[in-house]
Every structure is written in structure tokens, then in C-alpha cells.
Amino acid sequence: MEAMPEHSVAIIRTSTPAERTFGTYYAFRPRSSFYYLTGFAERDAYAVFIPGRAQGEFLLFCRPENAGRELLQGCFSGQRAAQSVFGADAAFDVAQFETLLPQLLEGKTKVLYQIGIDDAVVGGAVTRTISALQDKVRAGVVAPITLHSLDHLLQDLRYRKSPAELALIRKAVAISVAGHLRAMAAVRPDLQEYELEAEVLHEFVRNGAQAAYPVVICASTAACVMHHREDNRHRMADGDLLIVDAGAEYAYYAADITCTYPVNGVFSTEQRAVYELVLEIQRSMIALIRPGIGFDVLLDCMETLLTRGLLTLGLLHGDLDTLRRDKAYKVFFPHNIGHWVGMDVHDEISYCCTDGSWRHFEPGTVLTVEPALYIRPGLEQVHPRWWNIGVHIEDVVLVTETGHEVLSAALPRSVEGIEAMTGSQRFSRDLL
Question: Which residues of 386-417 are buried (b: 16+ CB within 10 A; e: fewer)?
């Protein structure tokens, strides 16, 4: 509310249950920004913020207690708990939202909501209300005249994580690491990819978490396609290189970690060369992280090291500066070098400021660093011995006051560490 413009009202809505098949629904999850502001995890709810309102500044509209519905759907918090537990100054039945909106907007000049996300529901109700209020302007009623997006305000709030948020992210990362270690210890030729997915999810669920996104397990040719997904139903063969992209969500906070390792536990000469190049690039990028720099600095580092490395391996040919300028590496690395992490695995935070400059890292910022190389079969001017090698390494990094901390550092990343762990059947939570 301190960041809102004068004479304004902010409205934010939670998400709606998504239908999976007729009569069944995916597990409900509140919209991240709504939960961030309210701590309220139920469906069918609106939060309204009105700075300076004498009758209460934080209003929550939610489902009322209903014994009949609760018998089928479980208990609702209701209006009393909305105030006593969740701190709302006033609470109302969600069915009253549009009915009460005119008195909440009257006398205000600006309305903030998530434009582009809530246009149909919140935007529609706001537009109808403003239209009704404008009919009373001649009677002295003040009606809002501008609509504003909440996004930049929310992004600035969510960008820098509090100690409480960081504790949850650390927990999500630790659970994710456990899932990766379990899969790494279990891997061997002739397993189906979904069998490793089950190992990962076992650790997530037994620790009170869930997958923050669909787990990606891909070997051989599939590992050369970014975020390849076909239900993880390929059989892993001796000699394959495997990419496992999996992150847990714990108490609505996410992790995002990717590991690459050989199915048979031993890197081939070519696999090792590519892996060590990607690892060198990642370590160099992470070493640069500190307050005051942005993703542009990491990108510049990656472009130089990757182009030089591809030339050394013989996967690119020509002049270093020309190849770098032309971004020739994109044939092998088509995606971004990292992203913000928080309540969303790709946190809803812009990468640039309103003036077009890169947003600088601040203490409490959490991001991933994820260089990769994908050498697809059939690439021209690439010897077949390099084909079907896909390497993707992704870690979660916290920006500290003086530099950075790799939150997922418990994972083995060196070739030697990975070869000692893969297929060992020696998974132990003591490794954490």
C-alpha cells in the first residue's frame, strides 16, 4: 500500500481450479502474487487494498462457511478466519464482490489490477462499476479515471526475498537435491526414463513437496532438444548421456535444478569434453555474480567462453570475434542463461527496468545459472562422434551482500564426482 499511487485501489484475484477431465480437477494452487500478499490459499477469493480507508484498508472476499459444501469440499476459512487468521481488516462473501465494488471505488481516481491476466473478471467488474459511477458524476461522485497494472509494483516487492522466503527456497532446493541424488544413484542402462522420474518424485513427496514443473528426463537424441517432453517414456541405453531437469516446490516456493550424467556411469571422451566446457562456463558465470551487475554481464561471459570453447572442440570454424558477433553458438545453445526463482519457477519479475536497462542483482535476489550445449544428430560440419551429446547444468544461486551463494552446491558437478555417484545405489540423505 505504501507503494501505491494516491487515491488508488488495488484488486487482486486468486486463480481458478483447472479442469483435468469431466468432473475432475487439477490440484488447486493459488496465484503466486495473491498468496504473496495475503497468505490465503483458497479458491474463489479477491483481495482489495485501499490505503487510508477508515473502515479498513485490507479487505478479503472469500467463500463463507457452509456445512453442506464443506462436507464435500473440505473446510473453508470463511470470513471470521479471514480476519482472525489472515489479518484482513474486513471480510465479505465473495458473492458480494461486484455489489460492494461501487462503494469501494467511489472517491478514488485510480484502480490497479493485473492487466492482461484479470481483464475478463476483475477488469470487467471494474469497468462496469466505473461506468455506473460516471453516471453520477454530476451529483458530485468521484469515479476512477485511469486503470493501472499491478505488475511492476508486485515485481519490485517479490524481487528481493525476505529471510522467511529464503528459508523456504533453501528447503525447496534441499529437497530437489535429494531427488537428483536419488535418481543419480539409481540410474543404469535399460531403465525407462519414467523410472527415474519416480525416484525424483519419491523424494519430493516424502518431504512434503511437489514438482514445481513437470520433471524432464531425457536421454540420447531427446537430450539435444531443450525441455523435451514425451512423458519420459524412452528406454535409456548404455552410452547415453542423460539430462534430468527437476525442481521441488515447497510451501509455494520453487527450485529449478538440472543435472547431466552418463547412464552407464562413465563419460566418453567427447561427452567429457562437452560437459567440462559447459561446467567451466557455468562456474565462470557464477563467479561474476554480486550486487550491482545484471544478466547482461553473465551473457557476455557465456558468449565469449562458449564461442571460444566450440572453436577449440572443432564444432565451430572461423574467426572468434566474427563468430561471437554473429552469435554462431545459438545453433548449439538456443535458450536463456538463467532466470529468477521464487514463488514461481520462472518468477514474475522483469529482466529490464522501465528505461530498458538490465535490472541489477540485489542482495536477496535468487536466480538460476544454466548454460547448455545441444549437439543434434545431422548437424552440418559436425563430426558424427559429437552427435547426440546434450549437456545442461543448472544451479540455484542467491545474491548476497558481498557476492553469491550456490544454494544447490551439495550436488556433485565435477566429472569425477558424478562418475562416483551415478549408478552407485548409494543414495543417502546424509549426503545433504
Answer: bbbbbbbbbbbbbbeeeebebbbeebbbebee
Q: For residue range 77-96, what is the model confidence (pLDDT) as tens digits?
A: 999 999 999 999 999 999 99
What pLDDT, on the 0 to 100 scale, is given for residue 275? 98
Can you tell me which residue has the cell 509455494? 252
**250 contacts 164 by C-beta, under 8 angstroms:** no
Q: Side chain identity at 358, as an amino acid letter?
A: W
Closest CA to 223 of 197, 251, 259: 259
- Grid coordinates given for 96: 458480494
Distance (Å, whole) CA 244 – CA 200: 9
Paired sense of beta strands 257-262 and 241-246, if any: antiparallel
Q: How many CB atoms are located within 10 Å of the residue 292 CB?
A: 9
**Burial (CB count <10 Å: 0-12, 13-18, 19+), residue 278:** buried
Q: Give the C-alpha separation, 162 to 318, whole Å.
A: 48
Residue 248: phi and psi, rounded to 5, are -90, 155
SS3 380: coil
Task: Give how far Cα 180 sits from Cα of 44, 170, 384, 426, Å.
Answer: 36, 15, 30, 13
Q: What is the pTM of this model?
A: 0.94
Strands (E) across 332-401 are located at 366-369, 372-375, 389-392, 395-399
- In this predicted structure, what is the pLDDT of residue 72? 72
- Any residues with CB less than 8 A from the CB of 306 and at least 6 apart, and which? 277, 281, 329, 332, 333, 371, 373
SS3 content of the chain, % helix, strand, coil (to 5): 40, 20, 45
- How does the average pLDDT of the chain come out, rounded? 93
Residue in the block written with cell 490459499: 41
| Whole-angstrom distance, CA of residue 169 vs CA of residue 249 | 8
Lookup: cell for 203: 523424494
Angular region, 140: left φ>0, alpha ψ -120 to 50, beta rest: left
d(CA 204, CA 211): 7
> Which of 350, 392, 347 has its CA nearest to residue 367?
347
